[in-house]
Amino acid sequence: MTIKQTLIAACGILALMLTGNLLLRTKPVQASPLSTTPTVTMVEAVETVLAANPGTAAIDVNLEHENNKLAWEVELNNDLEVYIDADTKEIVKTEQGWNLADVPFLANWMPN
Fold it and tell me: What does the pLDDT look like over 21-75, one tens digit per residue?
């Protein structure tokens, strides 16, 4: 390898390192008014949902932002999704999940 090729290779490596440094540089995290700690625990949210929906079981729980407020999303085994206000423990929304097998033209495309 000649000196010219070595210098070109070194410049290329330096350029890659500088570009990687710029692209992968971490940015400071800024506090958001939406990122607060819930006062209602996950267990309290699940207990509230199960009390309002007897005979069901919780299969998934997530903390989400709903209408600019923190809410626990509790998914039940009957495809119901119930949202609990993470500060007041009130049920703020209930959604029925989609069962694609119930849609006639999609039922044939669903795996068994």
Answer: 666 666 665 555 555 788 999 999 999 999 999 999 999 999 998 888 899 999 9
Smallest CA-to-CA distance from 49 within 17, 96, 10, 92 is with 92
Alpha carbon of 22 to those of 19, 45, 53, 84, 89: distances in Å? 5, 43, 52, 42, 45
Q: Return the CATH fold of 42-102.
A: Nuclear Transport Factor 2; Chain: A, (3.10.450)
Q: Say if residues 83 and 94 touch (Cβ distance below 8 Å).
A: yes
Burial 36-56 (b: 16+ CB within 10 A, else e): eebebebeebbebbbeebeee
pTM of the model: 0.59
Residue 80: what residue type?
L
